[in-house]
Amino acid sequence: MTLFTHELRQSFKTLLVWAFTVGVICWACILLYKSVEDQLATKAEIFSNMGSMTRAFGMDELSIASLDGYFGTQITMIFGLGVGMFAAMQGAASLSKEEEGHTSEFLHTLPYGRLNILVWKYLSLLCMLLIFNLIVVGLEALGIWQVNLDFSFDLFLRYHAQALLMQVEIVSLAFLVSAVSRKKQIGLSLGLVLLLYVMDVMGRIVSNIEDLNYLTPYHFASGADVFSQEKLEPAYHGVAFILIAVSIILGTRGCDLPEKGLERLSKRFISRFENKQDL
């Protein structure tokens, strides 16, 4: 539990900055809808007839002239990318920061096993995601209440439940990257988020590669699909849970390499100390 609270304290400022930044942007964009509602009503037909671009961003399923459609296509895109980047950054730094900062040696002197350390670190990541979502969802709900228009709150909650699973998958993949690297791979993890997002966009446009949608969490966490109440295949969730489990298992195995290196370092230090004692 000490490791858990330490991780939260260490990343709390970053968490607040990212959560309120994404949340305030979403809140402001929701309030903006009130002032552009009439303009969107006249241009909704244009947006729904842009061919591939319309399908890519889900505007063939929803009309941005309604608050449901506006939220499902615009706000969810902002939220999805923002929270995805946050999850990737935190996951990528979770373990590698100990190697990069040379604090892993100290961690292994504590009365905790390697698996114990990994579990508490992973749980702290999940807790940060929950706090992030509570802040952003609260600000979004505030904006919707201020706009005071018809809105499907049941679909709103369903979307955020899907988005939370998406975040867990991304943070698990980034956690795996952190476990097998001695340096913070922030750039790689952010690139992974953008790649997963582009895979979803391309999978909606090009029918020949639509199977890629099974590999990206942005597909089942699509606001357009949720707010249009499109039926989702259980296979998407199944693949997500498999990727999460595999990432956690490989992440715990990947940390064997740094630990073996630490054992060799400890033996070398002890042998040098004994040689000095002999002199």
Automatic annotation (TrEMBL):
Coiled coil segments of this chain: none
Pfam annotation, one family: ABC2_membrane_2
Any one Gene Ontology cellular component term annotated for this protein: plasma membrane
Upper classification of the organism: Bacteria, Bacillati, Bacillota, Bacilli, Lactobacillales
Membrane-spanning segments: 12-33, 122-147, 159-179, 186-206, 235-255
Entry's Gene Ontology molecular function annotations: ABC-type transporter activity
Keyword set includes Transmembrane: yes
Name of the molecule in the record: ABC transporter, permease family protein
Entry keywords, A to Z: Membrane, Transmembrane, Transmembrane helix
